[in-house]
Write a structure and sequence with these properties.
Its cofactor is pyridoxal 5'-phosphate. The protein contains seven helices and 15 strands.
């Protein structure tokens, strides 16, 4: 299986510690989505929120029954440093994706008797977003496609992302023609099968109510984001409380603001949902200031 990344030259990729652009076509990650991944923001060679990424990765390995040897995380860190250096991005911002699969083996869905993990580490350029996204906010639409529910897999970042792929197709048709990015639909809001809010296609959702940050429940589906967890852990330093809740989209207008967050972009206020204007809560800018100071994001706040 060959990489189809549109990077010129091809992004540096380590497969089991060796520079390569292919994995075995019989790899279970390719055949069945039998694996996990993490997408990490790296600044000047330092993987930010590394502890949070490893915690989620470890939980995912435990749930999928992927064996973790004592050197796995050391190999991943060494691999990350290698691809960043190989890409010539040791003194800038870049993105590193780590993929772990169960490897090759087993007939059909039957698990192999002996597991040899496939470990892939890829370095990409960091995406560029307009400064206006952080200042003025972004527009969201509610996706018609709803998330599949599996409480056992809820929270982890497994390789089965078809729900997000199908929902992301809707964003292309929802984008409104404009002379710039002002009306661009940046993200899609995804619901569970009962119609409750869960997450964005590539982000977690935050809502604001007085001195409290609220995140939708992720007990049936969704990814437990590392940036969201970091913000929750830092909330007390901003004088804020946190909680999770079951939230219907119809109730969103009772809150004093909405934001989206992930480890690549940090946090953006939401200015519009389904064409309806939303207030921007100034707490978002306080969180941006925190991320500027602690994680070297570059918001104009």
């Amino acid at each position: 299986m060959h990489s189809t990344a549109n990077q010129t030259p091809l992004s540096p990729i380590l497969v089991n510690g060796v520079l390569s652009h292919s994995v075995d076509v019989f790899d279970r990650g390719f055949m069945y989505g039998d694996g996990l991944f993490e997408t990490i923001r790296v600044v000047n060679g330092e993987p930010l929120l590394w502890r949070y990424h490893l915690k989620r990765l470890q939980l995912g390995c435990e749930k999928l029954g992927l064996p973790i040897d004592s050197q796995l995380f050391e190999r991943l860190r060494s691999g990350l440093e290698s691809v960043v250096k190989e890409a010539g991005r040791s003194t800038e911002i870049c993105i590193v994706k780590i993929v772990i699969s169960r490897g090759v083996g087993g007939r059909g869905y039957q698990l192999p008797e002996k597991v040899n993990l496939t470990e892939v580490v890829i370095c990409y350029p960091a995406p560029e977003f307009p400064q206006s996204f952080g200042l003025d906010g972004v527009s969201l639409v509610t996706c018609r496609h709803r998330l599949s529910e599996n409480p056992y897999l809820a929270g982890i970042k497994h390789l089965n992302r078809l729900d997000q792929v199908l929902a992301s197709r809707e964003l292309l048709s929802s984008a409104r023609v404009s002379s710039g990015t002002e009306n661009l639909v940046f993200e899609g809001l995804m619901l569970d099968q009962s119609g409750y809010m869960v997450e964005g296609t590539k982000s977690n959702i935050l809502l604001f109510e007085k001195d409290t940050i609220i995140s939708p429940c992720l007990n049936k589906c969704g990814v437990d984001g590392v940036a969201k967890n970091y913000i929750f852990d830092c909330a007390k330093s901003l004088g804020l409380n946190t909680r999770t809740d079951k939230i219907l989209p119809s109730a969103i207008f009772k809150y004093s603001g909405m934001a989206i967050t992930n480890s690549v972009m940090g946090i953006y206020p939401v200015k519009e949902l389904d064409g309806v204007k939303l207030p921007i809560n100034p707490v978002v800018y306080h969180i941006q200031q925190l991320l500027n100071e602690k994680l070297m994001y570059e918001y104009k706040v």
